[in-house]
Amino acid sequence: MSSPAPLSRRDWLARALGGAAAIALAGPDALAAATAALTAPPTLVTVHKDKSCACCEKWVTHMRASGFRVVVHDEPNVDAVKDEFGVPRALRSCHTARVGGYLVEGHVPASDVKRLMSSRPRVLGLAVPGMPVGTPGMEMPRGAESYEVLSFDARGATKVFARHEGKNL
User: Fold this and answer.
1) Fewer CB atoms inside 10 Å of the end CB: C or N, the chain?
2) Distance set, CA 55 to CA 30, 61, 69, 149 (Å)
3) Which residues contact 79 (CB under 8 A, 6 or more apart)?
4) What pLDDT digit, counting tens, does each position of 9-28 carry?
5) Is residue 125 situated within a structural domain?
6) Half-sphere exposure of 134 (CA within 13 A, CB side)
7) Residue 129 and residue 54 in one domain
């Protein structure tokens, strides 16, 4: 698959002016929202992981590629961090992250983290228990498992937040 040809200055200017005109026609609230979205700093994700975990590094790369600013802490005892944060044992995976006041346990896709941040539900966080093949950071050439992203509260109660269908296993 080839990448698209770069835009000429004329095409870029036409698109930029068209977008600006659309925002202006939508009114001052739309302009303020668009400006805020363009000037807001990337959301910080703080990841706690074992320093030798390659799949955790791949998940960090996935989050960065999705527009998050990621800080990594290599921990000598990741389970102690999970205990401190209150991650239920049944939901644990290889790394734990904090983002916007929420916990993110395991290989949760960036799209689900973005949805969490925009919907702001009353939960402690999201988790993908274990390490399902095909989750971000766990990609394999043979395909992907179907898996669920679970939301969880401080008592450990869970609900399905998202379902992702696997293929070609």
Assistant:
1) N
2) 40, 10, 18, 18
3) 92
4) 665 455 555 555 555 666 66
5) yes
6) 15
7) yes
Longest dimension (CA), the chain: 57
Same domain, 22 and 83: no
**32 and 48 together in one domain:** no
Token match 């925009």: residue? 118
Residues 88 and 149 in one domain: yes
Same-domain status, 17 and 53: no
41-58 burial: b if 16+ Cβ within 10 Å, else e: eebebebbbeeebebbbb
Asked if residue 156 and residue 93 are part of one domain, the reply reads yes
Return d(Cα 7, Cα 104) in angstroms, integer.
Answer: 38
Q: What is the pLDDT of residues 63-111, one digit of tens each?
A: 999 999 999 999 999 999 999 999 999 999 999 999 999 999 999 999 9
Residue 68 within any structural domain of the chain: yes
92, burial (CB in 10 Å: exposed 0-12, middle 13-18, buried 19+): middle
Q: How far is CA 33 from the centre of its chain?
A: 22
105-137 per-position pLDDT tens digit: 999 999 999 999 999 999 999 999 999 999 999
